[in-house]
Amino acid sequence: MKFKSPPVNSLSLDFITELCISLEKLENNRECRGVILTSAVPNIFSSGLDITEMCGKSMEHYAEFWRAVQEMWLRLYGSNMVTVAAVNGSSPAGGCLIALSCDYRIMVQNPKFIIGLNEAQLGIVAPFWFKDTFVNTVGHRVAERSLQLGSLHSASEAHKFGLVDELVPEEKLQEKAAAIMAQWLALPDHARQLTKSMMRKAVLDRLVAHREEDIQNFVNFISKESIQKSLRMYMEMLKKKKS
Amino acid sequence: MKFKSPPVNSLSLDFITELCISLEKLENNRECRGVILTSAVPNIFSSGLDITEMCGKSMEHYAEFWRAVQEMWLRLYGSNMVTVAAVNGSSPAGGCLIALSCDYRIMVQNPKFIIGLNEAQLGIVAPFWFKDTFVNTVGHRVAERSLQLGSLHSASEAHKFGLVDELVPEEKLQEKAAAIMAQWLALPDHARQLTKSMMRKAVLDRLVAHREEDIQNFVNFISKESIQKSLRMYMEMLKKKKS
Amino acid sequence: MKFKSPPVNSLSLDFITELCISLEKLENNRECRGVILTSAVPNIFSSGLDITEMCGKSMEHYAEFWRAVQEMWLRLYGSNMVTVAAVNGSSPAGGCLIALSCDYRIMVQNPKFIIGLNEAQLGIVAPFWFKDTFVNTVGHRVAERSLQLGSLHSASEAHKFGLVDELVPEEKLQEKAAAIMAQWLALPDHARQLTKSMMRKAVLDRLVAHREEDIQNFVNFISKESIQKSLRMYMEMLKKKKS
Fold this sequence. Notes:
The structure is a homotrimer. By secondary structure, chain A is α/β, with parallel strands linked by helices. Chain A has a single domain (about 1-240), classed as 2-enoyl-CoA Hydratase, Chain A, domain 1 (Alpha-Beta Complex), CATH 3.90.226.10. Chain A is built from ten helices and eleven strands. The first copy, chain A, has helices spanning about 15-30, 60-75, 95-100, 130-140, 140-150, 155-160, 175-185, 190-210, 210-220, 225-240; strands spanning about 1-5, 10, 35-40, 45, 50, 80-85, 90, 105-110, 115, 155, 165-170. A five-stranded parallel β-sheet of chain A has the order 1-3-6-8-11, with helices on both faces. In chain A, helix 4 (about 130-140) runs antiparallel to helix 8 (about 190-210). The longest helix of chain A is centred in the C-terminal third of the chain and has 21 residues, at about 190-210. Chains in contact: A-B, A-C, B-C. The interface of A and B includes residues 103, 194, 195, 198 and 199 of A. Chains A, B, C: It holds the Pfam family ECH_1. Chains A, B, C: Keywords: Acetylation, Fatty acid metabolism, Isomerase, Lipid metabolism, Mitochondrion, Transit peptide.
């Protein structure tokens, strides 16, 4: 599956909805046992949640958007398929979450590509299920430090503490991803799926149990004037950067 | 304590029962403060649960067998003694669980010796308390990947991510195990035991609370025709390998 | 903030009470966003809880002392400020807890400086919230082994498994601590504080929920004749060492 939403594969409501529908179709397709997620946009895997969806919109819109983000994660982290992230570009915030939700992460070794949950730098807070997914991958201490600093890590650094499993040169990425997929698909589906579910169920169940509360939290937080202001400033900065 | 049940120290109902009785005796013997577990069979620490106990038997037998496996783990993981695994051979599945349940794991550095929870490769699923013990030792991410792939790791790899604590040449194993035992026995028993219990209690309590349910799960799962078939195929394969 | 309670910065009831008052003042001072903890006593960061407070005193005194120790940890681990430990000397037991409760730990690379939760060596048991703080920092396995052995680690060893984040030569310590503080203070306070609270809340809440029970446990344990005896012996040993 190739993300193609130029310029930066930002996770707009439309993009997320389409991703959820695609995942559901693949999940229900008995011929499909695995999916490789990668980007068709150069230098960017995904830039994360689309800030325009969180800025200057109605409370209803924020709620709808957040429910879609939750849905995406529930589908991806809880997928019965083998999921491999072939990270061929930078992957901040929600982009990093997508990678974290897969079974295996391969990243192109390019000093310009960065990855991490940098929400704190924007003045916002990663929700508890981003945090849980991160802790499950890199452990409590690395997550605590990285989340508080909103760190964006180079590919090498991310590999060193296990945020990505493997680094490859760009030209080897697809080949490597296919090899990893073949390795995981060699296992009997049923046993692999039950094992995956056993590992991830506690964290998935936690969001399911607190889903409405989490939406309410997000809506209340994001619609604060101080947060809206800091998001607007961030968007201005991005626009200036581009031009 | 030396496992001696040729050819491969497989954990039959008899073997497990005897192991539990021995552990209980040692536990109640105030002179005995620690135990080193090792194998008297060349190249094998323990090959894990005896598949013949799980294949073509009655529901009652499966239930009895599983209760014994639980008992073994409860006694070993919760032991008041210092427990050192001197892993002098391969140690898949239940053999790996025994090593994981000790306080310290020393493994012979031999490229032929492998260790891991490879249940998924047989089409079965390690129960939650195998998983909990594994996560407590190597962390969530390593456990997730290793359990899903049913990986059997070389001694070097196992050492790299903490599945074993130390590698030694075969001829140094007993000496090293004795030195480690002496180091742990230098601590006051009472404080060491309370500390151990504090670290392991949550995971031990979880099985105690769900013991009957876990037996029922095992019996239902293992008696499925599809699972029985895959176990029979696995046994055929082992027989062919031998001959 | 410089600890200055010669000869070894031991955490007496007076010292802890003063520390709590200072932390509260800083916490309520809106100008103060971070604090660096270090020692004004050569070669010792803090020697941990003052054993004289736990030896030959009344049950009421033990209870008062323990409540103060809890208070210190609740304030420090739950602080809204950025907390950096600049560990410029040895730091056993309660001294190690103070370092573990900060956001970041820098230690002077001196082969004579040691750090760890060595309670087991004194025949006592680190309480569950020392353990939780330790597990959150170094993971379950390292904590299990280190706590059972009551290990005091060299700075290098402590750095290797993440008990400290960074090693520096003594003359660079203050400069490095200031640089780390500046890095953490560059983040928006609100997002950083909420993130910190999200990471630490479960463990903080656990003590709050069991605070009286934990005091009772401590008082019962410490007032046992066998424990009193072993503490007296330990103090004798320390006195002999000094003279």
